[in-house]
Specification:
Blueprint lengths: L4 E5 L7 H14 L2 E8 L14 H32 L5 E7 L2 H9 L4 E4 L8 H12 L5 E3 L11 E5 L4 H9 L1 H4 L4 E8 L7 H11 L4 E7 L5 H9 L4 E5 L2 E4 L2 E4 L1 H9 L3 E5 L1
Parallel strand pairs: 1-2, 1-4, 2-3, 4-5, 6-7, 6-9, 7-8, 9-12
Antiparallel strand pairs: 5-12, 10-11
Length: about 270
Amino acid sequence: MKLVRILLPIGAGGASGACTEAAFRLAERFGAGLEVLHPCPPPVQRLPYATELSPVYFEEMVDASRKQVDYEERKATDWFEEQLGAHPEVAAELVTVEGLVGPAVAMRAKIADVTVLPSVADEEDELWSAARDAALFQSGRPILVVPDKAAGPLGETVVIAWKDTVEAVRAVASAAPFLATANRVRLLCLDEGEESDGTASGMADYLTRAGYPVEIERASLEGRAVGEALLAATGKADLLVMGAYGRWRWREWIFGGATLHVLRNTHVAVLMSH
């Protein structure tokens, strides 16, 4: 199993060092194409809201916004060319889309195996929030969250946060390329005080039959929130695989508590699927 296309959204100044390194390394490792996406709102979408604007003032503001767009596109291109020079072995292309960040990322993420994004703790501005929401909830594809704290190879020791949910099953399926090359796969079940989940043994059996070196682990909350207990149990693994939980409410995605905690506090790369 392999990755065919990896998506790396960037701002005018590029992406974080951790995300950049992870995306280029994965592209080289799997022989995948890397699409670097620069979503750039056009001039008319940058104008301040006003009920009345004189034609002259309107044209001046559009012209100023166009110059800003041109500047951001040049800056993104310079960053991309620098990365190409540092990773000549990777087949990468820069795609600039003039439009809102969310729709642009959702559109391109649908035709990528995974979208690489920073954690909330590292990048929490409007651009990255919109990119996360779109890639995770509107593309039907997984995201790979890479915090600045993550370092070294990705996927040597994989922890699967198992729960009897569709989201968790999708996350496991999305992780197949990583599982196929992992040295160790830990299927982690948290005791949340509910009835025992009998599906863990079934999933472990399935993964074993698929040829993955899986082992079942169980951990208790010990008074902690689910997200906190999950990250603590992850230990020194280099990839956490989990379902992402959220819902649509008044046009905003509201993350579930455990999902948001992991996005804010993870110290390892996380493969999430909704």
